[in-house]
ABC transporter substrate-binding protein (Microvirga makkahensis), 396 residues
Amino acid sequence: MRLTLTIAAATAGMVLASAAFAQDIKIALIAGKTGPLEAYAKQTEAGFMMGLEYLTKGSMSLNGRKISVLVKDDQLKADLAKTLLEQAYNDDNVDIAVGTTSSAAALAMLPVAEENGKVLIVEPAVADAITGDKWNRFIFRTARNSTQDAYGAAAAIPASGEVSIATLAQDYAFGRDGVAALKSALAEIRPNAKVVFEEYAPQNATDFTASAQRIFDALKDKPGRKIINIIWAGQHPLPKIADLKPERFDIEIAPGGNILPAMQIYKNYPGMEGAIYYYWNFPKNAMNDWLVAEHQKRYNSPPDFFTAGGFAAASAVVTAIQNAGGTDTEKLIAAMEGMSFETPKGTMTFRKEDHQALQAMYHFKVKADGKDSNDLLELVDTISVDKMPIPVRNKR
């Protein structure tokens, strides 16, 4: 009897251990699917799911465990994002979380990850503070930050000759962070270029006449090249500024990258140059080739700005779990610090000091002869990681 009970207990223990080992890998994907950045969130989700599919060869399983993704809409609200992450960690028992779209919402989520001792991969929010003064050791970011955008924009500016720049940005953290980062980047890699005027407009601004006039007045008498650098999320002010004919004063416009629907207007300004995080036809690697072909097949369009970001986040998750041998948080952190992983953009590496993913950017020129509405940009140069000395700004 005692032997039978011992064997039964041992067998039960093996069954329980096996069941625990086979438990789903649970991932929370939090995104702002309701509101003005809905397109960004949908792209992130599509890219994340396609990334998991590609990296697991369609099995949606890893190390013998099924992958379960819980998608949650924070509606771009910081309080809701915080609540959803708390629920994901405590009620849903997720192993790892990814998100979110709004920088304000992402910042609200950071202390939740620390309090619960669970990893949060930030994608696609860009505010510098996320891997800066608000950072903690549970935070990793596959998304580029405002400073990486700024170094890309700076690298796309000529390295010689006097250049005067005026900025037009939205009057909130994203815009102001972007301008501050651009000024620092110029000082570091383009000392021949200076920001001589800063213009901030409301996030929902539609009339830019007064802003443009102030910018023109600030630039028109400057020697050398004169450039308006636009830092904007959502409906782009480029047409409104261009309609006021800055070329009268030999002023150029340098927009940042954006999603394809927002960049449709770029085709009206062939030869215009700027920097972008991702454009579907720039990276040349097998992963991006698959993403472009499959996205075209499924959605009748190439993958977009944030589709690549979602895919990169999926790659970070899969690579981390493989390298850590499971989902234990401390083992994940140890595996992820300094970890390199493949993405549609090529290799990214989580910097050990602040867990920011170091990654290439792209200098583009608007095509004059694109064959369709998504054939917009030509590659001038790939701006490699070593050309962007991104400073560490956290408290570590």
Q: What stands out?
A: The first helix runs from residue 2 to 21. The first strand starts at residue 25 and ends at 31.
